[in-house]
Design a protein that fits this description.
By secondary structure, this protein is α+β, with helices and mostly antiparallel strands. It has helices at residues 10-20, 49-66, 89-93, and strands at residues 24-32, 35-42, 73-77, 98-103, 108-117, 121-129, 135-142, 146-151.
Length: 159
């Protein structure tokens, strides 16, 4: 089952506006003592090493103050091409991207393009049931039924 908590995280609330000013979005944020991992993405295009460095240089001083430490270990990275979703919020961030998800109510894995999201559900466009090969144009799946989900990168989409 996916979380729905990142938007309530106090560090996320402080850092998201800063990162958005760089044209980026926070995908994931983990704070474990003085070890912090930050995963970022661009609205359009790929995240570069320079983007990661810019975010690092921007948020490091903020996090040092927020965590009241000089011994901060900060890692800034990209989500990767096969990212496993950890929060419902990621469906909104990756709208238009391919994904695979397991619907626990139907006991089936579906793949398709992430379409519009509401507060309670996600729509898969041009979907396929991986178990039965059934296909369709639009499938709405309540978030409560999404057991797991990940990006579904296809090499044939490159180019």
């Amino acid at each position: 089952m996916l979380n729905n908590a990142i938007r309530e995280n106090r560090y996320f609330k402080e850092l998201e506006p800063l990162v958005e000013d760089l044209g980026l979005r926070i995908v994931g944020l983990g704070v474990h003592g003085t070890d912090v991992t930050l995963t970022i993405k661009k609205a359009e295009g790929e995240v570069s090493v320079d983007d990661c460095a810019d975010v690092y240089n921007l948020v490091f001083p903020w996090l040092s103050l927020m965590l009241n430490t000089r011994d901060l270990q900060l890692e800034v990275s990209t989500p990767g091409i096969q990212r496993v979703f950890k929060d419902i919020y990621e469906f909104e961030l990756f709208c238009g991207s391919r994904c695979r998800l397991y619907d626990s109510a139907k006991s089936a894995t579906f793949s398709g393009t992430i379409g519009p999201c509401s507060e309670n559900s996600v729509v898969l466009l041009s979907w396929k049931n991986e178990d039965s090969a059934e296909t369709g144009e639009r499938l709405e799946i309540p978030f409560e039924n999404v057991y797991k989900a990940k990006l579904d990168y296809k090499w044939e989409d490159v180019g």
